[in-house]
Design brief:
This protein is mainly alpha-helical and about 130 residues long. The protein is built from four helices and no strands.
Length: about 130
């Protein structure tokens, strides 16, 4: 957490999640049309929800249980995204070289979420908790 955090956009975890969602979006553009309402929708939704839940947690950081709940939701969406990436690789839509790189990035995001959940008081507005 280097520098002052004024918004969820300043959180490294949010920035990483946003980059991964965009990478997944770009990759999924090349997948078969028959996957449009199945795998493509699922992976785009879950990958976008990681950052969305981080943003929502920021708004709820004054309330520790709500803050932790939204971070837990972000982690759940991360795990779902990981599953869909494995599925995409099994179907031949992602190369065996790209999938581990994305999984590694998701694992890093998961570690960041875990650290935030361990020390929620560091994210509370001044004078709270």
């Amino acid at each position: 957490m280097a520098g002052e955090i004024r918004s969820f956009r300043d959180l490294r975890v949010y920035q990483e999640a946003f980059e991964v969602q965009q990478h997944i979006f770009d990759l999924s553009k090349t997948w078969p049309k028959e996957e449009k309402y199945a795998l493509i929708d699922q992976i785009r939704r879950s990958s976008r929800s990681i950052g969305g839940n981080v943003a929502e947690s920021w708004a709820k950081r004054r309330y520790p249980s709500h803050f932790l709940s939204k971070l837990t939701d972000a982690d759940g969406e991360l795990q779902e995204t990981s599953h869909w990436l494995r599925t995409a690789m099994a179907c031949g839509y992602i190369s065996p070289k790209d999938e581990p790189l994305l999984q590694s990035r998701l694992a890093q995001i998961g570690k960041m979420l875990g650290k935030m959940m361990e020390i929620p008081e560091k994210f509370a507005p001044a004078g709270e908790f």
